[in-house]
Amino acid sequence: MGLKYLEHVKSVALFVLIFLSLALTFTIWTFTPSLQEIETPTQVDDVSIGDKRNADEVVRPVKVLYHHEDEVTGTFSQTEIEAMLDTIQQWEISDVQLFEEEAGTDVLKQYLQEPGRTVLYYPGAVPFPVFDVIMDISDNNLPESTFNRVVVEWGTEENPDPVIYFINTGSGRIYEAQVSDAELIEFRGDYVQPSEGYNRYVTNPDIGTLPVYVPENPIEKTGFDYLLDETSASTFADAIMDSPTSQFAGDLQSEEFTDESGAIMRELDGQKSINYVQPKAETSDPAIPSDLLFNSINFVNEHGGWTDQYVYFGMKSVNQQISYQLFFDGSPVFSNTTAVSLDIEWGIDNGVEQAFRYSRPTYLLDSVVETRTIEMASGEAVLEALSRLDMDLSTIEAVTIGYELTRSEDDQLIELITFQPAWYYKANGKWTRLSDESVGGVKLGLE
User: Fold this and answer.
1) DSSP code per residue over 245-306
2) DSSP 198
3) Nearest to 338 by CA among 303, 313, 365
4) pLDDT on residue 141
5) Model confidence over 252-308: pLDDT tens digits?
6) Which tens digit of pLDDT belongs to each residue from 377-392?
7) pLDDT of residue 295
8) 3 state SS of 204
9) Among candidate residues 200, 194, 217, 168, the one with its CA nearest the CA of residue 79
10) Nearest CA to 226 among 421, 423, 414, 446?
11) Mean pLDDT to the nearest integer, 31-41
């Protein structure tokens, strides 16, 4: 009896275990985990180097001049220009019309120099569709034309003439548009009247085909030393490329990255930059200027590539090339040794528009180590120095205070990046530094 009872218990236990096993197996087979939260990423989190920017943050004037009855005043202070742009962006601009197809030099001078007007200087030609995104233009069919000067005519107290001109100084093309009387009267009060206290600007008729204005008196600028901070080339590769692999380049000093699409990215350590090329995207088609600007800004936004302040500096739409220059304390930065601009060449592969070439700095401006005040030579001295140059003076297009960027290692082998203010002039599309000796030396201020 006892044994029989035991067998019976074992049979029941076995049955229960088999049942549990089957039930568990069935549960495992039919179990569907809740997957709404977890989507398989196509790639690891998007790598973002710095910031995303809108068109109005990179397409901006770098100088504003006010032509009064008996003097010209102006500013390149980003704070003052920013305040004025905030106001102009609220205007409703309407009725954009082609006014002159090819204005000659004398006509252009008249528009850019006559009293009663404010001139905004853009370093590169701005396409109307891009300006439309920044400003409020009520016209629907804007031309694809470009301009590099905006002239706001404020007329006289008795006769406010609410007209804006958009001028391309290269082609001589002039468009005009309307703004309201009320907006212009407000502009006179808020900006034109205070501008009478700005620095006076002077020009020399022998320099430049169109007048080149510089601040008359010496200006104080600050020189800076920064600690060098760098984003690694591999971080850029992960941000721009699709599953990149790396190897040392032929010089065994720098890395080279490739991906399955055939793109190549090289680290140029000497220039603190990277150079990316997608050979398949090379094209000989010219760009539509507004597309080139929008596409290139979006491309940099995709990897959060705006690190320090970069300003749209110019394009060659026929070659699909566009450049954004590093700016520092309101002035462009130049260097013979180190990359100072984001340069993009646009292309297309199998109907997909993309970057064909992209080169840019890898460094970031991290922390200030030292500053010094420097009194710059006066504009009078600069015009004098320019007039002595052994060159065709009519080819000079622009003169500005810029920063020369140099790198050095101090005693502790900490790499420093130095910004030293200097006078620069642009001729035949190329920027050249005026030597300190030619403009009468540099006076160092005290800390």
Assistant:
1) EEEE-TTSSSEEEE-TT--EEEEEGGGTEEEEE-GGG---SPPPHHHHHHHHHHHHHHTT-B
2) S
3) 365
4) 85
5) 678 899 999 999 999 998 899 999 999 999 998 999 999 999 999 999 999 999 999
6) 999 999 999 999 999 9
7) 95
8) coil
9) 194
10) 414
11) 39
DSSP H or E run through 153: strand 146-153
As given in the structure block, the two tokens for residue 367 are 């922390």
Amino acid at 22: L
Long-range pairs, 165-171, Cβ under 8 A, ≥24: 165/99, 165/111, 166/96, 166/128, 166/131, 167/103, 167/108, 167/111, 167/112, 168/125, 169/108, 169/112, 169/210, 170/125, 171/102
- CB count in 10 Å sphere of residue 198: 18
Q: Are 332 and 311 in contact (CB under 8 A)?
A: yes
pLDDT surpasses 60 at 219: yes
* CA 436/CA 446 separation, integer angstroms: 19
Residues in CB range of 442: below 8 A, 6 or more apart: 374, 375, 376, 377, 436
The yes-or-no verdict on residue 23 having pLDDT over 60 is no
Asked whether 417 and 365 are in contact (CB, 8 A), the reply is: yes
Neighbours of 255 (CB within 10 A): 18
Looking at the DSSP bridge assignments, the partners of residue 150 are: 120, 166
Joined tokens for residue 270? 């000497």
Residue given tokens 């590539």 in the structure block: 305
Of 240, 264, 433, 416, the closest CA to residue 335 belongs to 433
- 166 CB contacts (<8 Å, ≥6 apart)? 96, 128, 131, 147, 149, 150, 151, 174, 175, 176, 177
**Among 88-92, 141-145, 354-358, which range has the highest average pLDDT?**
354-358
Q: Count of residues for the chain?
A: 447
User: Is the predicted pLDDT of residue 177 greater than 80, yes or no?
Assistant: yes
Single out the residue of 323, 335, 354, 293 nearest to residue 420, CA to CA.
335
Spatial separation of the C-alpha atoms in residues 294 and 358, rounded to whole Å: 15
Q: Is the pLDDT of residue 41 over 50?
A: no
Contact between residue 306 and residue 51 where contact means Cβ atoms under 8 Å apart? yes
Both structure tokens of 33: 């985990």
Average pLDDT over residues 13-32: 56
The Cα–Cα gap between 253 and 269 comes to: 8
DSSP annotation of 173 reads E
Q: Is the pLDDT of residue 247 over 60?
A: yes
